Amino acid sequence: MAAAPGRRVARSTQAQHAEAVHAQLRAEIVAGDLLPQQRLVEADLCARLHASRGTVRSVLLRLEHEGLVVREPYRGAHVRVIDEKEAVEITQVRTVLEGLAARQAASVATDEDLAAIRAVHAEMGPLLEAGDLLAYSDANRRLHACIVDASRHGTARRLLSELRAQLVRFQYRTIFVPGRPQQSLAEHTAVVDAIVGRDPERAAAAMIAHLSGVTSALHSAAGRDARSVGNFG
Amino acid sequence: MAAAPGRRVARSTQAQHAEAVHAQLRAEIVAGDLLPQQRLVEADLCARLHASRGTVRSVLLRLEHEGLVVREPYRGAHVRVIDEKEAVEITQVRTVLEGLAARQAASVATDEDLAAIRAVHAEMGPLLEAGDLLAYSDANRRLHACIVDASRHGTARRLLSELRAQLVRFQYRTIFVPGRPQQSLAEHTAVVDAIVGRDPERAAAAMIAHLSGVTSALHSAAGRDARSVGNFG
DNA sequence: TTCGAACGGATTGTTGACAATTCCGTAGAC
DNA sequence: GTCTACGGAATTGTCAACAATCCGTTCGAA
To answer: Does A94 touch chain B (CB under 8 A)?
Structure first.
């Protein structure tokens, strides 16, 4: 992805070209280079990404299924806009799925997995003290990825990967809620402790509590009331 | 216009042709008419479904995203086979997602939703007493669909719809485990009571307990040990 | 006989042209 | 002045031919 500064990926076989185009377009959407609601004209993308319409079309199909674009018959594709309500829905689904992943991780993680989780978690405190919220947010993302990987749960992993991509526009929103970073760190510590202690129930509960906190922060960031969606116990 | 070439589905607009082909092929896979691991040769499908390769190709792409077929570059597509391990994973994800849906349903369901849920639930007891396990299984499916609809949770609904399609080959497996139907009915009753009583926490817990039962039954059907995956409390 | 490499059939990936549909601006009627 | 019918441009959906790739088979040499 980031390794393709030059144009065209020029991979070995042409069959992988579609893959490169997909990665490129997806990255542009996720990074916000393409604004929401922006139209994605096939001929346009063909010229810009040096691909044929068939390739572009298959890529758009895939992105549609990933929830990043919307296509309407004979009307074309455009970048999907995710509103507050849907962001909450996605976070709710993330909550239960990551709860499942945390439970499994506490059961089946290898010592290497646990070491990786601890290593990432150890980064977070200093970053927060240094006030580097962006780096903290990135470490946060990596920690969640480590836990999901440690769960060895392919299905949950795949779904979470898609859901996370849809939420990119909101990822830096909660971290700027006053007091949220400190609470976030404490919640993460509870999750990590439970997983490292190999306590599945506590791990799941801690992860669910953590992401419920995220949901609340999401509402706070929107200036709305957090009580209406429930807090998942 | 389109009616001239003779055959073809002769639908109103051609844009819906791909949709029809998708529905047809998907139905064949879900119904089990196409066996797992069976190859899906594009030219074959073109002739059988009266569609061009472009259309067939887009349909296969979509089915791949839905997890019903697997495609390998230059090697073609085949019906995806879901093994025991993956069936358990999918059921685990279903468990937490339907738990979320049940919680939401208990909060936001309309009186019409509750009436529909009760109506379907009322069918189940008699069907079980009559020994019609297939009809019972279908009512079971409809009850779960009603609850998800009542939750008004688009994201959970979409994901569950896909997951359920992947599990069709296992749907009649648990119902034949001795004693399972009776236990299933009791679990359903608990779920319905909690939702109708508008108790979100109890609804979620009951639904999770129910689907944990399904997971155990899945293991019993496979002659394995149910303890290894946890029971979700 | 057995191993390896090249050949040929079968199948998928890609390309460009054609058909169908929608959208927007314009002209006309009331 | 406003609404409706029409027409052309832009765009997507579809189709059939071409190129690239994989797999089973055959031929040849050690």
So the answer is: no
CB-count burial class (<10 Å; 0-12, 13-18, 19+) for B189 = middle
In tens, the pLDDT along B77-121 reads 999 988 889 999 999 999 999 999 999 999 999 999 999 999 999
What single-letter DSSP state applies at residue A222?
A: T
Per-residue pLDDT for A131 more than 70?
A: yes
Contacting A residues, span 187-206, partner chain B, CB-CB under 8 Å: 200-201
B76 touches strand D (CB under 7 A): no
B53/A contact by beta carbon, under 8 A: no
Residue A84 CB neighbour total at 10 angstroms: 14
Token couple for A171: 């990822």
Q: Which domain holds residue A158?
A: 84-229
CATH number of the domain bearing residue B148 = 1.20.120.530
For the CA of B74 and the C1' of C1, the distance in angstroms is: 35
Percent of chain B exceeding pLDDT 90 equals 61
